[in-house]
Fold this sequence. Notes:
Helix 3 packs parallel to helix 6 (169-183). The protein has a six-stranded mixed beta sheet with strand order 2-1-6-5-4-3. The protein has six helices and six strands. By secondary structure, it is an alpha+beta fold. It has one domain (24-183): Nuclear Transport Factor 2, Chain: A, CATH 3.10.450.50. It comes from Gelidibacter pelagius. This is Nuclear transport factor 2 family protein.
Amino acid sequence: MKKAVLLLLLTIGFVSCENREKEIDRVEIAKQYFKALDNSDYSKMAEWFADSLTKIEGAYKQTYSKGDYLELLKWDSVFDPKYNILEIEEVEGIVKAKILKMDKRISFLHEEPFLTNQTLIFKNDKIISVEIEYVDFKEATWERNRNGLLSWIDKNHPELNGFIYDQTEVGGMKFLKAIDLYKNKN
């Protein structure tokens, strides 16, 4: 009798551990990912990514090594981003989220937060792809503000030229400096 009870308890223990391992909570990983973005805290992010990660924004598709993607996130952190999860759900192993993002760059160029639909795709319980679809992107506002900034910097601070394409932490600091100089030009 004791052997049967022990065998039953061991079986229940193994089955419950096996189920927990198989049922990784992708929504929780996604929530932690957005929370880390919001806090600009990348210390644990590497655990959630595969060796490479593909980021898709409209027609733009870029594959990053884990290290290169973390460098891109450091650029993003310069602008003090705030991410707000409006909706999040898992559908057939894919996490879909509606995200509101605001930062100093977006505030200047877009004049209001970005609303995005984001899709996180997993393989072997690691994020392999982040697809970002912009909802109601104000292209005319973005272009007007971007062109005004670039023209003014070109004439008044040519030493900062090229900042718009430099997606490193240093490039982000130059971008922020360009925005500050432009806003305080008078």
